[in-house]
Design goal:
single chain, about 325 residues, alpha+beta, five-stranded mixed β-sheet, 5 strands, about 55% helix, about 5% strand
């Protein structure tokens, strides 16, 4: 993939993400548009790319021969969103009826920060259950399997669901971290979740867009000293600085939405990982491939958060050896 294709992709992504009109310096030909559509699938941001295209002047939009493909994509996107919303509503009702206290995490919850929540591409549904409730949930879904990180994994109406016993992808006592679902907590959750995937089987633009819009929408609505302290306790302060540098450079985030003393660093190492791997779910990696990715990225991950890197590896190792079946 050439730099020009990637740069055009990012320009369209920013236009869709921030709902801004755009004029491209050069218009892709049909093959170029096909590359951009393929890239948006790999990076799981098809809805944002379509939004970006809508912000182009009419004469710069894709040619007539691609319009049937775009309409098909838009219709499929809308159907998937409707199906996921229905499954999530049913799931939360099932859990609430059983006296449980589910908290939606990450993807489906992050959509609320987008100008148009339906533009965020759906993935799986992640739900946190407070301490002691996971086994009760397992009784509701006897076909569920336990993953290596302790989450219960099940499928309803072709939608993958994960029920998590902890809110954060951080190996620290819950009492030392912000309250689940709080503005500060959601930023910390998204930042830590991105770290978990970037050191493993890959990272796509979708997760980066989630954090960018969350930081923008929550600006001034959380205690910055609390977030800094939480990032420091988690060992993720240096990582978060790198992450924000990429969001400012490539995704159009206003630097004012970062921590007050934000000083950007060169994000090229992280940028290369995003360009090379794409959205992790796109590749459906095997356990062996995931383990190989962890090993290849050890120099990168250890330089940004040693403790969490080893904690993830240890957790996955124990989980794969001792996860119970049912």
């Amino acid at each position: 993939m050439s730099d020009s294709v990637w740069n055009t992709f990012l320009a369209l992504l920013r236009a869709g993400l921030w709902e801004q009109d755009l004029r491209l310096p050069s218009v892709p030909d049909t093959a170029g548009w096909e590359q951009l559509l393929a890239l948006s699938r790999e990076q799981a941001v098809m809805g944002l790319l379509l939004k970006g295209i809508a912000h182009l002047p009419t004469e710069q939009r894709p040619p007539e021969e691609l319009q049937p493909i775009l309409r098909t994509v838009e219709e499929a996107f809308a159907r998937a969103n409707a199906r996921y919303a229905h499954v999530q509503a049913e799931l939360l009702q099932q859990l609430a009826d059983a006296g449980l206290h589910p908290v939606v995490q990450k993807g489906r919850e992050a959509a609320k920060y987008y100008a148009d929540p339906s533009a965020r591409q759906v993935g799986d549904i992640d739900v946190f259950l407070p301490e002691g409730e996971l086994l009760r949930a397992w009784a509701l879904f006897p076909a569920a399997k336990m993953a290596s990180d302790g989450a219960l994994v099940l499928t309803q109406d072709l939608v993958s669901i994960e029920l998590h016993p902890r809110y954060y992808d951080i190996h620290r006592p819950a009492g030392k971290l912000p309250a689940p679902g709080s503005p500060c907590g959601e930023i910390l959750l998204l930042s830590a979740h991105i770290f978990k995937h970037v050191i493993g089987h890959g990272l796509g633009c979708k997760q980066l867009c989630d954090l960018a819009v969350a930081l923008a929408r929550l600006e001034g609505k959380y205690d910055e000293s609390e977030l800094r302290a939480a990032l420091k306790r988690a060992g993720l302060l240096r990582w978060h600085k790198l992450l924000c540098s990429l969001l400012v450079d490539d995704f159009g985030l206003d630097p004012a939405c970062c921590l007050p003393d934000f000083q950007p660093v060169a994000p090229e190492r992280l940028r290369r990982i995003v360009r090379r791997t794409g959205h992790f779910a796109h590749h459906a990696p095997t356990k062996a491939a995931t383990a190989g990715a962890f090993l290849r990225r050890l120099p990168f991950s250890l330089s940004y958060c040693t403790r969490e890197t080893f904690a993830y590896i240890w957790e996955l190792t124990l989980g794969n050896l001792f996860t119970p079946g049912k």
